[in-house]
Design a protein that fits this description.
Strand content: 15-25%
Distance between the termini: 60 Å
Number of strands: 11
Order of helices and strands: EEHHEEEHEEEEHHHEHHHHHHHHEH
């Protein structure tokens, strides 16, 4: 057997050629033919007495192809590993005319996409911003209103009153079609609120949407599903065709509500409830701020890390690896996103190797246990630990270990970002929760 690698001028493409002679595969093929002759059941011959020549005639070509394919796969893998080649995806076979009936010697070629080495930005060379969110009165007010509505009693009313929600289809007054289904919060109306009082099912209300919410693009985007940009550019009249009127009797702030929100007896007073609401809201904003910073960190790493990608090979590999799922046109349309994803995976792998980052089984189990507790709104107690661990173990074994791998990858990704955050300059920017929401809406 002879294997050669021919790198192209850009050093990112290569053709791997594997030359096989009869001596490379003949022994294995003969051995497999003898096995078949012992196991084959052919009419007219006793088991184990089928002549090898007959087995060769009937199954010889199939056995030859199977053995050569196995030999090729093993030899190509070993060559790549022994020569420490960093490749993109898998080798792609180059089409050729092979005649297994007459040929004894074969030449097989594989196209490789080679991944270059690269350097990460120097420590402290990059700067990212992190929002330091503070709670404002308006945000807390909205939080409590949401809790009152979420855990209150909701019923349908015949005629709308101030503060009700109008469910119906919203569209621009001069446009065709039914429009989009929305739940309009009359409590947030700044102007023309009187147009909605007294509304009933099937009423059609014509109003200036932008003026009704005093140009608040965030509020409009919140209930219409529009982007903030789209909501900010609204002009003219809209119509709302009322489907139903919903009225909510706000929930009372008592022990029943405390238990519904945080779990049985987690808080037992209004003071503790207020403190728990504040800390929970802050945790959510801190998490959002961290996620925003992480996305910025990834973008900065991609922008400041020079990595050459074998583009044409990558496109071929994407098409082959996603056969029947992606077309050439779709790959071209979204190629930049695929390339970013590939580059980030290369950066991530380099950070893992350079810093010897690892994930233990205990970390995976602990993370899964915390997720389970979160789903049931519970806190860990000694009595719960054994049963929750059992749920976690069962979940991680499901899907043939797929859930385990997903948790492993998620923890490893967090460790990579944590490592990178320690190597960049982080600027803390103080911002109110309301401004943070408005800045990142849509």
């Amino acid at each position: 057997m002879d294997i050669t690698l021919d790198k192209k001028d850009d050093q990112l493409h290569a053709i791997l050629t594997v030359n096989l002679t009869e001596a490379d595969y003949a022994t294995a093929v003969e051995s497999k033919l003898k096995e078949y002759s012992k196991k084959a059941q052919i009419k007219g011959f006793r088991p184990g007495k089928v002549p090898v020549t007959l087995v060769r005639k009937m199954y010889g070509k199939g056995i030859l192809v199977e053995e050569i394919n196995g030999l090729l796969g093993k030899s190509v893998d070993e060559y790549i590993k022994s020569n420490d080649l960093k490749i993109l995806g898998e080798p792609l076979p180059v089409a050729s005319d092979i005649d297994f009936d007459t040929q004894k010697d074969y030449a097989f070629q594989f196209e490789l996409g080679l991944l270059p080495d690269f350097e990460l930005p120097a420590d402290q060379a990059l700067t990212v911003d992190r929002h330091k969110v503070t709670l404002d009165e308006n945000t807390l007010k909205e939080t409590y209103e949401q809790l009152e509505r979420q855990f209150g009693e909701t019923e349908e009313a015949e005629t709308a009153e101030a503060g009700d929600y109008l469910v119906g289809k919203l569209k621009k007054a001069d446009e065709e079609g039914e429009g989009r289904m929305v739940m309009l919060p009359t409590a947030k109306l700044k102007n023309d609120a009187d147009k909605f009082v007294g509304a009933k099912t099937e009423d059609v209300i014509t109003f200036d949407l932008k003026n009704a919410f005093d140009g608040d693009a965030t509020a409009i985007a919140g209930f219409t599903g529009m982007s903030k940009e789209e909501a900010g550019s609204l002009e003219g009249d809209y119509t709302l065709t009322v489907d139903k009127v919903q009225r909510t009797t706000p929930a009372e702030f008592n022990q029943e509500l405390f238990d519904k929100v945080f779990g049985k007896d987690i808080v037992t007073s209004k003071e503790d409830f207020d403190e728990k609401v504040n800390s929970t809201v802050m945790e959510n904003y801190d998490r959002e701020a961290d996620n925003l910073m992480n996305r910025q960190l990834i973008d900065k790493m991609l922008e400041n890390t020079s990595i050459e990608i074998p583009k044409e090979f990558f496109k071929k590999w994407l098409l082959r690896a996603n056969e029947g799922k992606l077309t050439t046109e779709q790959i071209e349309e979204h190629y930049d996103d695929y390339e970013k994803e590939l580059k980030w995976s290369m950066i991530r792998n380099k950070v893992v190797e350079a810093n010897e980052l690892k994930v233990s089984n205990e970390e995976i189990v602990d993370r899964t246990m915390q997720k389970i507790l979160g789903q049931f709104n519970m806190e860990m107690t000694p009595e719960l630990e054994e049963s929750v661990r059992g749920f976690a173990d069962n979940f991680l074994r499901q899907e043939n270990g797929k859930n385990y791998v997903q948790e492993y990858e998620a923890i490893l990704a967090e460790k990579v970002l944590e490592n990178l955050r320690g190597k960049v300059v982080v600027n803390d920017n103080e911002i109110t929760a309301e401004d943070f929401r408005n800045q990142n809406a849509g």
